[in-house]
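User: two proteins, same treatment. go.

Assistant:
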Amino acid sequence: MSETSSKPLEVAADVSTVAARHVTVGLLGAAAFVVTADVRVVNPLLHIIAQEFKTDVGSTGFIVTAYTIPYGLFQLVYGPLGDRLGKLRVMTVALALFAFGTAACAIAPSLAILDLLRFLTGVAAAAIIPMSLAYIGDNFPYQERQAAIGQFLAAVALGNILSTSLGGIAGDFLNWRFIFLLYGLASLVVLVFVARAARKQPPVPAPAEPWRFSQTIKPYFSLIRQPGPRLLYIAVFLEGFFFFGGFSYLGAFLRDTYNLLYLVIGFMLSGFGVGSLIYSRSVKWLVKRFGENGLIMLGGGVTFASYLLIALLQLWPLFIPLNITMGLGYYMCHSTLQTKATELAPGMRGTAVSLFAFNLFLGQGIGAWLLGAIVDGPGYVPAFLISGIGMGALGVWIVSRTRKLAAAA
């Protein structure tokens, strides 16, 4: 075949490859959508769940910790598994377990059983988003990766919006248990398509050596011994601690302070998802305009201002735009850190991204637990001030340390 006649075939192959990559990003986004919707669903419902089980909001907030701690811990298991067995294949098994655990929450007879089921669901859910990010890292060059991750995060944003909105509707008109059943069934639908995509993946080359526990742990120690990765992992732990430690109690704050309907609270909390959706649609311009360090600084500053104004002004109509800016600011910072994590170790990307997610959710779980004690003691305002000041200081610290490491390199 002549060179001229072969070019259309090459172009067609390139177009087909690009289209296939974007279809896969859409499928990964659907899986992330149901997981995100599930993890955020309790935020507007903490107050009503506390009433049903006759306990206080801070104690009920352990539902968040029960989910996020195993979610973070099991990243350390799924990362090496994804690198070894195939990322989509690991996601298929995890989605099946996730669907069962989420649906089972609908029949939990006590708060202790609900905590246990959320723990088991968190174990399964841990595979979905980090494996998706690692898969994107494997299939998109770095210069295209933040845009691809931005598209993926659009699904996460929609999950945030739908989750809190439906949670509010359930709180006023249905029952909080209905939401878990709905998300369990939705994840079964997504499972069918993920399993089909996994079967089309080429087999992963057989490992040269049998699995050993030391082989799983060694790459993590290798990563955290390096200054750059260590900075990133500490940063994302603190981000989870400060940001989500306070965010977990915004719904209860709106109910206790203003006695708003759960429906209204759910829609107000969905502003966070709107902010992250705005980020996902403007990510290319933001990266070009501010650069990575600029986005981290700006994101920390915006979340600081949002928390500060929510805590001090206490005007509920302002909560709506402030929650939108909070979502925008968070993803300015977090998405930048996330993109950096996909390039820490290209040869074991699943492991590197999983350690990143582990630290995020470990921070979130510990933050929700400790700030819950502050909510039950001094109150909501000190908890939100800690979250805001912590996020503002974190942005400055990350950029300062990044510049010092770059200068020393």
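Protein 2:
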Amino acid sequence: MTRQPIFTEKAPAAIGPYSQAVVAEGRFVFCSGQIPLTPAGELKMASIEEQTTQCMENIKALLRSQGVALGQIVKTTIYLSSMDHFATVNEVYGKYFQTGAPARSTVAVAGLPKGVDVEIEAIAVA
């Protein structure tokens, strides 16, 4: 199996021992969970809308660095600090997938890195 770590300055650097994303077999792009951290390292915490938007923009930047579009995502997983955020996150997330939304799981968790309320990971096929 071939596996190539991805790094782009247009998305936040990894905050631990992991890659921003990995391309496997030359066509599968696995994006690590993205929190609302800007490429400059600023945490966007004003609202759940702002947090979700930053997560999606990070994913978009990672995919673009490989010539892949959001429409090529086949699966996402959304982690929420509370299911009370579900409807709002759904609304923002839906704006990124006007047609043909990918398969998705959404779960509430006990905690997320840096105390954020949302983390999103994605798998795309180039």
